[in-house]
């Protein structure tokens, strides 16, 4: 890590960032997943590291290269992501930008399912652990500032506000990912920051700019 960067305002602060999708196996060659490029999470980790934070970056499988100068923990499934997050704690702050699959395949097969076997496969699903909620509701050792994301296609603010209260995180970064916004898979984001103080609309800007602004806000809270 560049010495000048390591001397930024977040020097000595450990910040955990989750990013990317998770892959939940159906069999050794197939999986279910959420759409996620990992771009926003990667940009946030980069921005935090640029302010001098010691960043643990827990990353699901994505094509984007992880940032330099952070501790990268690659994972595949939601269960592995939860375990990696718990191992990485304690942290001063945590940003949960990953698009975690809500379910895993309960009857995943150890061997490749063949299409000529006995008709169509029947998949059954089981719910994944909610990593953000689990960490937000920790009785001891909870990070002082926890930031979640809410990608919604309708009733964005109402859904995200309810999500913040349900999970118990401090902030939610909400965005509208309806196909017509072009945000999914794009380089820009238009977010609303929801906290105890209410909802603050940020103008549409590059994902890197969202990350820089969010990192600055986090630094304000952690170091005043
Ligand atoms: N999240 C998580 N673990 C999960 C699911 C979600 O940590 N198993 C986190 C995401 O990283 C994000 C936030 O929770 O920061 C909101 O994710 P989202 O999918 O919008 O919330 P859900 O509670 O899964 O609700 P929905 O039914 O809308 O998918
Ligand atoms: Ca979800």
Automatic annotation (TrEMBL):
Cofactor note: Binds 1 FMN per subunit.
Claim: Transmembrane helix is one of the keywords in the record: no
Residue span, DNA/pantothenate metabolism flavoprotein C-terminal domain: 10-220
Catalytic activity: N-[(R)-4-phosphopantothenoyl]-L-cysteine + H(+) = (R)-4'-phosphopantetheine + CO2; (R)-4'-phosphopantothenate + L-cysteine + CTP = N-[(R)-4-phosphopantothenoyl]-L-cysteine + CMP + diphosphate + H(+)
Binding of CTP, residues: 102, 112, 129-132, 149, 163, 167
Ranges in a coiled coil: none
Cellular component per GO, a single term: phosphopantothenoylcysteine decarboxylase complex
E.C. code: 4.1.1.36, 6.3.2.5
A GO molecular function held by the record: phosphopantothenate--cysteine ligase activity
Record's keyword annotation contains RNA-binding: no
Region feature Phosphopantothenate--cysteine ligase, mapped onto this chain: 15-224
Keyword field: Decarboxylase, Flavoprotein, FMN, Ligase, Lyase, Magnesium, Metal-binding, Multifunctional enzyme
Listed cofactors: Mg(2+); FMN
Metabolic or biological pathway, per its Swiss-Prot or TrEMBL entry: Cofactor biosynthesis; coenzyme A biosynthesis; CoA from (R)-pantothenate: step 3/5; Cofactor biosynthesis; coenzyme A biosynthesis; CoA from (R)-pantothenate: step 2/5
GO biological process terms, semicolon-separated: coenzyme A biosynthetic process; pantothenate catabolic process
Recorded family membership: In the C-terminal section; belongs to the PPC synthetase family. In the N-terminal section; belongs to the HFCD (homo-oligomeric flavin containing Cys decarboxylase) superfamily.
Cited function: Catalyzes two steps in the biosynthesis of coenzyme A. In the first step cysteine is conjugated to 4'-phosphopantothenate to form 4-phosphopantothenoylcysteine, in the latter compound is decarboxylated to form 4'-phosphopantotheine. Catalyzes two sequential steps in the biosynthesis of coenzyme A. In the first step cysteine is conjugated to 4'-phosphopantothenate to form 4-phosphopantothenoylcysteine. In the second step the latter compound is decarboxylated to form 4'-phosphopantotheine.
Protein name, entry field: Coenzyme A biosynthesis bifunctional protein CoaBC
Biological source species: Yoonia ponticola
Taxonomic lineage of the native organism: Bacteria, Pseudomonadati, Pseudomonadota, Alphaproteobacteria, Rhodobacterales
